[in-house]
Structure formats: structure tokens, C-alpha cells
């Protein structure tokens, strides 16, 4: 089986899940899968995908895994007690053939608290099933992947101006395979030294004794559209609720659920001082970084005390260019995903699974990259744009 541990997911799923347990335990949600890659047909493998998901739903947290989670400074004991009873409910996920999305439709409906851990392993399953059925020469692909990985690492290791360069591995959801993912993390740890900050994958962080990294994802801010007092205040509500839960820990805010303009309007002096920094995940990263630094200065915050994390489709050359642009002006870090875990000489799948409803009402992400906007209700999307004073698509 592909997924053999419920820890084989990204850390921000656990940090968000803890907030859900304490703040929104009754929330009901719906997720929907989307494949953005053309020319893909997953229908021949649908039974294999279903079998993998069925096995995923049989997993429970082992005591040694719970002990590891309880050792993370921000994980609370009652959350660990809840996880001791947790399993993913098979009845909440539906996988059927479809005329689009690469030939399959995947939807998840149920309590947010019980369905939040579906997204990452399901996407990892879809990827691995697809590539193990379509890759003819896996040994040669691994050799090509190793060559590419070495070339990327030496772009950093051979540049004396990159002493402060820090990268994290963020590629669970679009990895070529679990085994290749583990290889990448092992090599990064062995060869990148202090340049390697850690991985978003909790299972691999534990296996390789590196730092698990992550704070919040888009679904958290989206869900607050259906949970907050009113729509216009949903972003502020989400950030304040996060601060209430973590009291200054896990202080990286996600900036692109409503676009940069709306984020800066809500990210006032209080949040500038309270949060450690922000994460970029769509739009031009250089423009975003310059605007964040100017925003900090306007709010009487020294940008050099804050961290900007870049994580939108990064390659090593782009990350290096960003590192040199912002060197000495702020702290910077880079989350590199697909370019690490699925760069073996073929086209990676662009697959996502996004929340589309919370408590019965539509929710949406209005990204700085139009192709990343995802909502199945055009009327709600138009209303959201109006409420947040967003430009037309």
C-alpha cells in the first residue's frame, strides 16, 4: 500500500486540525478534486485508487506516532487524545469515473474535523498510482532524478553568496512516489547541511530526524467564510482565531486567499507585529516581496525581523534569484515541492483537492494567479469579489 501511516501528510494539516477541534468542531465541509493536466486518463486505474483509499481509511495512529506528535511544542494533549481515536471515514469519500479531471471525480463530504486529513494522502495516491502504471523504465527515471537533484543542490552549494539560503521540501501531494520522496529528503539532509530547513511531511520528518514545517493552508481561511461573523471580516476572523489558538506560535500568515490588496488591507499593524511573517503562493513573487517589505515599513515594523516564505511553483534558479533580491532586507525561506519530488524527466500531474463548501455555503479562493481560483458557484464568486473589492477576472 502507498500510505502506511497517517503521519504521511503535511504538518499544516495537523496545525489546522487542532484549531478545528478547539474552535470549529461542528463544521461541515465539502472538498472536490481537480486535475489541471490535459491528456491524462485515470479511468483504467480507478479500482487501484479506490483500493488504496480503502486501505488509507483502515489506518490508525500508533502510540509511537502519537508520542512523536505530542513532542511538537504546539500540539496539545487533548488533540493527541482525539487522534488516538481517529480514522478517516470511508463513507465520506466518493471516487467515480468522470468526463473531465483526467477521467475521475473525487469528492469528500462530512465533518471538517474528520475529513481534513483526506487531501494530501489522496493526492499522493493518485500521483503514485498514475506514475507506477505509466512509467516504463523506473530505474532510469530514478537515475535521471538523482542527476537533476545533484545539479540543483550544487547551484546553492557552489555559490558563496548563498550562505543564508534555506529551503524546505514541500512536495508530498505531487510526488512521483513515496520511495522517491524519501530519497529526496535523505539526500537533502545528507548533502545540503544547514541549507536544508526541513520537510512539510511529518512521517519523513520523523523518519529522518529533521524539522517538520508548516502553519496554515488555504482551506483554513476559506472555511472562515462560512464560520466568521460576516464575509468581509472573514480574513481578520481567521487570523485572530489562529492567534487565539497558538498565542504567537506558528506565525506565518497565508496572503493569497483574497489576493494581495485585500490581504494588506486586513493585515494591519497588530498582525504585522503579531505574526512572524507571510507566505507567498501566487502572483509575481518579486512584486509580492517588495510590497510586503513596504507594508511592514508603513506599519512601523522592521522588515529584517520578519520572514517571507516563497512556495509557489519554485525552481532552484528562481529561489536563488529571490534569495539574492531580498538578502539582508528580511529573512527568507523557500518551500520547494514538485520540482524536488517529481522531476524525473516527465510531466508531473497538476492535481489539487480544494474545499468548495463550509456549513452548506460556497467558499472560494480568489488567487493572485487566476488559474488557481476555484469555486463551483459563479454567483458567490462574483459576490466575494464585490465584498473584498477585487478586480474582475
Automatic annotation (TrEMBL):
<dbReference type="GO" id="GO:0005829">
    <property type="term" value="C:cytosol"/>
</dbReference>
<dbReference type="InterPro" id="IPR036068">
    <property type="entry name" value="Nicotinate_pribotase-like_C"/>
</dbReference>
<keyword id="KW-0662">Pyridine nucleotide biosynthesis</keyword>
<dbReference type="GO" id="GO:0016757">
    <property type="term" value="F:glycosyltransferase activity"/>
</dbReference>
<keyword id="KW-0436">Ligase</keyword>
<dbReference type="InterPro" id="IPR007229">
    <property type="entry name" value="Nic_PRibTrfase-Fam"/>
</dbReference>
<keyword id="KW-0808">Transferase</keyword>
<dbReference type="InterPro" id="IPR040727">
    <property type="entry name" value="NAPRTase_N"/>
</dbReference>
<comment type="similarity">
    <text>Belongs to the NAPRTase family.</text>
</comment>
<dbReference type="Pfam" id="PF04095">
    <property type="entry name" value="NAPRTase"/>
</dbReference>
<comment type="function">
    <text>Catalyzes the synthesis of beta-nicotinate D-ribonucleotide from nicotinate and 5-phospho-D-ribose 1-phosphate at the expense of ATP.</text>
</comment>
<feature type="domain" description="Nicotinate/nicotinamide phosphoribosyltransferase">
    <location>
        <begin position="165"/>
        <end position="391"/>
    </location>
</feature>
<keyword id="KW-0328">Glycosyltransferase</keyword>
<dbReference type="GO" id="GO:0034355">
    <property type="term" value="P:NAD+ biosynthetic process via the salvage pathway"/>
</dbReference>
<comment type="pathway">
    <text>Cofactor biosynthesis; NAD(+) biosynthesis; nicotinate D-ribonucleotide from nicotinate: step 1/1.</text>
</comment>
<dbReference type="Pfam" id="PF17767">
    <property type="entry name" value="NAPRTase_N"/>
</dbReference>
<protein>
    <recommendedName>
        <fullName>Nicotinate phosphoribosyltransferase</fullName>
        <ecNumber>6.3.4.21</ecNumber>
    </recommendedName>
</protein>
<dbReference type="GO" id="GO:0004516">
    <property type="term" value="F:nicotinate phosphoribosyltransferase activity"/>
</dbReference>
<keyword id="KW-0597">Phosphoprotein</keyword>
<dbReference type="InterPro" id="IPR006406">
    <property type="entry name" value="Nic_PRibTrfase"/>
</dbReference>
<feature type="modified residue" description="Phosphohistidine; by autocatalysis">
    <location>
        <position position="218"/>
    </location>
</feature>
<feature type="domain" description="Nicotinate phosphoribosyltransferase N-terminal">
    <location>
        <begin position="7"/>
        <end position="127"/>
    </location>
</feature>
<dbReference type="InterPro" id="IPR041525">
    <property type="entry name" value="N/Namide_PRibTrfase"/>
</dbReference>
